[in-house]
Amino acid sequence: MDWDKLRIFHAVAQAGSFTHAGESLALSQSAVSRQISALEDDLGVQLFHRHARGLILTEQGELLYRTAHDVFDKLESVKSIIADSKDQPEGALRVTCTVGFGSTWLTPRIRRFLDAYPEIRLSIICDDRELDLSMREADVGIRMSEPTQPDLIKKRLLTVHTHIYASPDYIRAHGAPQDIEEIDDHAIIAYGDNAPPTLRNVNWLCSIGKPPHVIRPTKLQVNNIYGLLLAVESGLGIGVLPDYMVDHNTNLQRVLPRVNGPAFDTFFVYPEELRNTKRVTVFRDFLEDEVRRWRF
User: Fold this and answer.
1) Looking at domain 3-81, which CATH architecture does it have?
2) pLDDT tens digits along 129-160
3) I need a labelling partner for 157 at 20 to 30 A (CA). Which of 65, 101, 206, 213 fits?
């Protein structure tokens, strides 16, 4: 299989059109189209359905694309490992973490890392699902629970505590509960149904102080912890948030400060094959330094 044709096919499959693929490859639309037709002739199958609005992969095209994508992904990884042999870390680094941690704790701090290592191309993937590092969905991860996979190296970062918060506007309008029983008199904002394992026990405010299987009604449910933060900030009600999301946030006040929610450890994890990769090492050191700064 011709390597140049395969490279062009991969670009077309990602772009969804000959024109957009040509722009990324610095080739004309007609040149890209000819290469794809030649590849289809070589293989004896049709790889794309041609439509007025773009291209759609055929079943055989999907199979070839998945394989080609894996090949190019591994080549990019090898390229980054080779680049790591230089003095200055460089190359792509994809970090997966939860929406709450990535959007409120990590990204506001990330400039210091990129200023120190300008040759690293960083991608932060905020997703409450745990992406599979062994399948290269990301390079490294920040996990809200201790991983059990034997092929992952783990480093504990910090312990996350959760508490009840409300906005000053809400407290001025409705007061603050003085004990657990008074929570019944307040509007509760909760995480939506089917919270992922990374947000286990996030809705303990709905059941604390209640008999088993009795749940307080909620004013609002939202299945995104950052959306929950914004709803609490708006003055809609009270809600449970991890303390790292409320760091230096003057728009929120702790309610029932002596009531502590579940706490859990977070971990920095990465595959064994990346153990000696400089990009991973310097990012791990950056995280540990930022945790120390945050605590003190």
Assistant:
1) Orthogonal Bundle (1.10)
2) 888 888 888 999 999 988 888 889 999 999 99
3) 206
